[in-house]
């Protein structure tokens, strides 16, 4: 869906800023992408409420395409982080769309970053006109709707898989396996 694709692009831009390989240039591109995606949120919410993505204008779709392109440039330079490491298991084993999987996790991961690196998370959130990561989580929850079920055993298995990936070491805030379990648990709380 357009919503899942937009959230995937948002995840790419945010994760680019959360990468150990982030630079002034990649951060500038990421923030531009983030702002462009956030500007499209009213149309995405309207599509959700109407039950039809046809209400998303061609102009908004072009803006999302441009934002996705910029976010792609960002992750080509920075790589992805813990969010993608965790999202892969959701896609592989639970058949959750890639962008949706990242969106389900992004808010909770940014909450972890907010505790450890408040200036960095603050810069990202400022680009969204938010003051705290909880606001992003609430927006993503609204855009993504009802959440899939995930068991405690799946959370343990997916956390164990994710902690072994190179994406974790690429994260400015490198989570522990316990952090990953908490992120999964909180992300799927109803």
Mean pLDDT comes to 96
What top-tier CATH class fits best?
A: Mainly Alpha
Task: Give the % helix.
Answer: over 70%
Q: Write the CATH homologous superfamily.
A: Dehydroquinate synthase-like - alpha domain
As for the CATH topology, it is Dehydroquinate synthase-like, alpha domain
SS-based class: mainly alpha
Number of domains: 1
Strand content: under 5%
CATH architecture: Up-down Bundle
Helix run count: 11
Number of separate strands: 0
Biggest sheet architecture: none
Assign an overall shape. Answer: globular
- What Rg do the Cα atoms give? 15 Å
What report would you give on this structure?
The chain is an all-alpha fold and 190 residues long. The chain has one domain (2-187): Dehydroquinate synthase-like - alpha domain (Dehydroquinate synthase-like, alpha domain), CATH 1.20.1090. The protein has eleven helices and no strands. The protein has helices spanning 2-17, 24-39, 41-50, 58-78, 82-94, 98-116, 118-126, 133-144, 152-163, 166-169, 177-187. Helix 1 runs parallel beside helix 6 and helix 2 packs antiparallel against helix 4 (58-78). The protein is globular, with a radius of gyration of 15 Å. The relative contact order is 0.17. The mean pLDDT is 96.
